[in-house]
Design goal:
Distance between the termini of chain A: 26 Å
Shape of chain A: elongated
Number of strands of chain B: 0
Strand content of chain B: under 5%
Structural class of chain B: mainly alpha
Mean pLDDT of chain A: 76
Number of domains of chain A: 1
Order of helices and strands of chain A: HHHHHHHHHHHHHHH
Number of helices of chain A: 15
Number of domains of chain B: 2
Oligomer: heterodimer
């Protein structure tokens, strides 16, 4: 895979390239992008609220590429930061449970039986853990649906490109085939991690913290690998569309923050879950930049790809680009 | 894509939820499952009633009950005058339960898994198709249930056989018990492991139209080829059960009885959704079925606390109208009479049992106070609104079982009402006066008892329709059975309101009235 990349663009040092082709894009494509941006802005304003109410309307969109692009309003969601307070409350209440079971300050002070005070604290702690479990669900589920949408969009895009490419156009066919191979790697590697399982496991008192840390560890490393592979495939698509693939200012960056998730995991265990709260907080916001840059790229590609359907028989797009 | 096919557990689970929301009929098979449990319980309760009547008839009841209450249970059981009778009745009871759980289970599970497949593929699913699914594959399903249970629990059965052989060989009971204790944990572990692989045997009967060993074999194949998804399913299933149990345990010391609430959640929500998920995992694991397409799901949590309660309330309102129609229709009067008769027979028989020695045995107990009520039902042992809700859900689930057990040709519904009357009949002579008895029963019983009788009546009607469909099968008799089942389901759904009122009265008002008439707690 690396050999191929070096053959095509020897100046590039990483697989995350051409993430923002705005400065290099062809004039025709730029015009189309403007329309697409307008459409996306409008869709976010007017369509997104509808999709939140009922995604069935979204699922009925005929053009797969448009459908998958629009789905990002639903899949690439942000998570309310205030939910982190419940993680704090949960941690404090479970700590109180340990203190009460060991030193009995509440039952001694109030005169109520230890079993009652422990039940009351653990019930309150459990109730506080439910939103934490929802948080874990949201983080893992966002990973799943984002990966699935990206894969669907890439598959639809590659299919469209493949159908519109003249088999005699070897350079373009090579790029399409490479993209297809990359996509297969994505499909094999980006396995679903059940958001329900991880959220339920994180509800388990005390050891739930371990499951929470492990879920965050997996999400973090999965996203990093995903970003690498996904942007490589997008690059192949750009190449197949005849868009220039080159060095721009955003390329050297990692959009998904690089965290030493193993160290985070270990620290979380040694701090009895306290560090997990911080990790949970950053995990809520980590994919934001990745989502933004991906939506930017999709906005560029979508008009070109949807245009292929209309003009493929006359080979206008291929020739134009 | 290049032959790559994946199973997405979360996708299937979420789609299962929405299928369940679109087709509330998916709750009916698990309600029928409750009915099946009621039939099994009826076998036990009717055997117990018969046993007590036989003892009363032979004048042995007082001595038997006295021995039981004084703690010499073993002595009471091995009494030569009682033991043979007890063995015969226990054998009848065990055989009855086994037959009901396998044959009845065949019908219920066939209907259940068949209706899941229909619900995923069709826009609407009728009661008719539910019954058709049950009737079509019940034998295949019953055979599969038997083999699945046999295969799953074979390690434990083997350990039992070995223990028996050790006992026969050595004649040493302690050695046999020790050998059992040594290995039974491993046997249970092996059985649990096997249960993971026999998970898909029931869906296989419906999806692949196979049965017996073939279904078990297919289940093993699908589970081993999709071990990750199967483990995920098992984890989710186990985690839900454990969490609900945990909530019940936490609530108990705080006076929050939550057992019935969790039972209702499991019966009506979790089981249909999880079983539907299991069926669809099996379906999508088939080589000829394409990978499930990605479609973002609508938010489930928002739906659960906004739209679901409204949808449930609409069904309850329909149920209340259905109760009205069912009660006033002259063609239903014979069923009402039959249900009232069952209650009356139960009361009379209960009275007879108490007056034949059971009452005396109870009254001879040290510290027995006929004026003392159950202290566990009053504050601060329980918090009033929670007790009311718990009582409501418990009684409502009993009525669901009573009504839908009627599909076993009406007899279980009759038996269930009779047993409830029997309990009333036993208690009545034990109370110091009829006024005190009425003070304890009437405030909530005036709603609760007629509600239970209505459930029994609709169950007997369902049983009559089942008889007709069995004895003279025709499209008309099948249609009648389908309509009766629909009516039974709507009637019990409507009864929820009545049981809620009765439950709240029983928890909050009845103890006050009881105190006014001389009861202590």
């Amino acid at each position: 895979m690396d050999d191929r990349r070096h053959n095509h663009s020897p100046n590039l040092t990483s697989t995350r390239r051409s993430l923002d082709a705005t400065t290099l894009i062809a004039p025709t494509a730029l015009d189309l992008r403007l329309h697409a941006s307008t459409f996306v802005t409008l869709s976010r304003k007017y369509i997104a609220p509808l999709t939140v109410v009922n995604n069935d309307t979204l699922n009925q969109e005929a053009d797969e590429i448009i459908r998958y692009s629009e789905m990002r309003n639903v899949t690439d969601y942000s998570i309310d930061s205030s939910l982190i307070l419940t993680a704090l409350a949960s941690w404090i209440l479970w700590a109180l449970y340990v203190i009460e079971s060991r030193y009995r300050p509440i039952s001694h002070a109030s005169g109520i039986p230890l079993a009652t005070s422990l039940s009351a604290i653990s019930l309150a702690a459990f109730v506080a853990t439910v939103p934490v479990s929802y948080l874990v669900y949201s983080i893992v589920n966002r990973r799943n649906v984002h990966f699935e949408r990206s894969e669907g969009l890439l598959r639809a895009s590659i299919g469209r490109l493949k159908n519109s490419t003249n088999p005699a156009d070897t350079a373009r066919m090579f790029a399409v085939n490479t993209a297809e191979r990359d996509l297969l790697a994505i499909a094999v590697e980006d396995k679903e991690r059940s958001a329900y399982v991880w959220s339920l496991l994180s509800l388990v008192p005390f050891i739930g913290g371990l499951f929470l840390a492990y879920a965050l560890f997996r999400v973090n490393s999965d996203f990093q690998k995903h970003e690498q592979r996904e942007f490589a495939t997008i690059e192949d698509l750009q190449r197949a569309l005849g868009l220039p693939v080159g060095h721009v200012s955003v390329q050297p960056q990692r959009w998904y923050p690089s965290r030493n998730s193993l160290a985070y995991f270990v620290v979380s265990i040694f701090t009895a879950g306290w560090f997990s709260i911080y990790w949970l907080y950053v995990a809520m916001h980590d994919p934001r930049a990745h989502f933004e840059i991906q939506s930017h790229l999709e906005n560029e590609l979508q008009p070109l790809l949807t245009g292929l359907r209309q003009f493929s028989s006359a080979s206008i797009i291929g020739g134009g680009i | 894509m290049s032959g790559l096919k994946r199973l997405f557990f979360d996708r299937i689970l979420e789609r299962s939820y929405w299928v369940w929301r679109r087709h509330p009929i998916l709750m009916v098979p698990t309600m029928l499952g409750t009915g099946l449990s009621t039939i099994e319980q009826s076998v036990v309760t009717m055997t117990a009633v018969a046993f007590l009547n036989l003892l009363a008839g032979q004048g042995l009841l007082k001595s038997f009950a006295t021995r039981i209450f004084t703690g010499s249970i073993f002595g009471a059981i091995i009494d030569p005058a009682i033991f043979p009778m007890l063995i015969v009745l226990a054998t009848i009871s065990l055989v009855g339960i086994a037959l009901v759980s396998i044959l009845g289970g065949g019908f219920v599970y066939s209907a259940e898994y068949g209706v899941y497949v229909d619900a995923w593929q069709k826009d609407s699913v009728s009661f008719n198709s539910l019954l058709a699914n049950g009737a079509r594959r019940w034998k295949a399903m019953a055979w599969t249930i038997f083999l699945t249970v046999l295969v799953t629990w074979s390690p434990l059965i083997l350990v039992g056989i070995v223990t028996l052989l050790v006992y026969i060989g050595t004649g040493n009971l302690i050695a046999a018990a020790l050998s059992f204790l040594l290995v039974y944990e491993f046997a249970i572990g092996a059985s649990l492991l096997l249960s993971l692989f026999t998970l898909y045997a029931y869906p296989a009967v419906v999806v692949d139209q196979i049965s017996g060993f073939a279904a078990v074999k297919h289940s093993f194949r699908v589970a081993s080829h999709n071990l990750g998804t199967t483990m995920t399913y098992a984890l989710v299933r186990g985690a839900f059960q454990l969490l609900l149990a945990f909530i019940v345990i936490l609530g108990a010391p705080l006076g929050l009885p939550l057992t019935s609430l969790t039972t209702a959640v499991v019966t009506l929500l979790l089981l249909p959704i999880l079983h539907s998920t299991k069926t669809m995992i099996y379906h999508y694991a088939r080589p000829d079925v394409a990978e499930m397409e990605f479609r973002p799901s609508n938010p489930i949590i928002g739906d659960m606390y906004r739209r679901l309660p409204r949808a449930a309330w609409r069904k309850v309102k329909n149920g209340l109208f259905e109760i009205g129609r069912f009660l006033v229709s002259p063609s239903n009067f014979p069923f009402h009479v039959a249900a009232i008769l069952a209650l009356a027979i139960g009361i009379v028989d209960g009275n007879y049992i108490t007056n034949s020695g059971l009452g005396t045995a109870i009254q001879l107990q040290p510290g027995y106070d006929p004026r003392k009520g159950n202290p566990n039902v009053i504050f601060p042992n329980v918090l009033p609104p929670f007790l009311g809700i718990d009582l409501f859900l418990h009684n409502w689930l009993v009525s669901v079982g009573t009504a839908l057990a009627g599909i076993g040709f009406g007899i279980p519904s009759f038996a269930d009402i009779l047993f409830n009357g029997f309990i009333l009949g036993i208690v009545q002579p034990l109370t110091p006066s009829n006024t005190m008895f009425l003070a304890a029963i009437l405030p909530h019983g005036i709603i609760e008892i007629p509600s239970l009788v209505i459930a029994g009546s609709v169950g007997i009607k369902l049983g009559t329709a089942a008889w007709r469909a069995k004895l003279s099968p025709s499209p008309e008799s099948t249609e009648t059975l389908s309509r009766s089942l629909r009516q039974a389901v709507y009637v019990v759904v409507g009864l929820a309101v009545l049981f809620l009122i009765a439950g709240l009265i029983e928890a909050d008002i009845t103890p006050i009235i009881m105190r006014m008439y001389g009861w202590t707690f």
